[in-house]
Design brief:
With about 325 residues, this protein is an all-alpha fold. The protein has one domain. Helix 7 packs across helix 10.
Length: about 325
Amino acid sequence: MSHRQAVLLMVLVTLLWSMAGVVTRQVEQAQGLTLTFWRSAFNAAALALLLCWWRSPSQVWASLRSGGWALWGSGICWAVMFTAFMWALTLTTVANVLVTMALGPLFTAWLARWFLGQRMAWPSVMAVMLAGLGLIVMQLPALSAQLNGSAVLQGPAADLEGPARAASSAFRDHGAGLLLALAVPMAGAVNWVLIRAGADQTGSYRSVAPDFLVSVMVGAAMSALVSGLASDPLNASGADLGWLALLGVFQLAIPCLLAVMAARVLQPSEVSLLGLLEVVFGVAWVWIGTAERPEPSVVVGGLVVLVTLLAHEAWNARRHRQWAGYR
């Protein structure tokens, strides 16, 4: 797979990932970890069928047995990403979760530098900073509303025992939500580095790729187990299950397999940076699917992210052409 093909594949991945918001709005009864359970369960089932069809049940089982710490470590990372994101949304605001995701490229670049010896070029550093800034600009209305709401808790009513307890509980939940949200980019950073390290060590796509493809199924099964124990799986209607099956197959299973393929060609920091497109595409899905017009700051921030990523990939493509010419 060429670098250009991997970039286009990763863009498709983020487009599929980003439909979570508009589809989740169709879910009427299932909430929080119940939603996570069914989405992960359908994800795991779809991956099991896809991998057994593509490979064979015996080869999938062999991959599970011989995958070693890298496969299971990647599986844990997927489980954290599948579970922590939705759990964080139940404890803090969407704006906080999305802005925290902007730290992903920084974590990934740091890990890649220390464990893979990959230095991040200055254009990439600038792209990470500008894309993160654009993501923050997109969430300015929500962040402003949150700050105004927090100010209320600091007024005279905060001296009363009841409101003080409520405020204390809210801030504890908010802190826990931020920690869970922080776990998503951290787990993603570790995962992309693990996958790229496997590609660098073997030099052969087909010899190791099934292990990391199987790790997505392992992560989905872990996520379903944890969220199932912490929720009420029966609290979902038949219509909800249909929408969650759609998410499990087309928003998680298929794009996550494609992401593993792309991550074996792209640098970890590049995968994480392109992953920020999920937020931009998510806004577009909601705009198209619900006719909900975004705030001007959302449009401006989204354009900053898009232009930054386009410029970065144009620079990257030119660099790869020059490198190919010197070989």
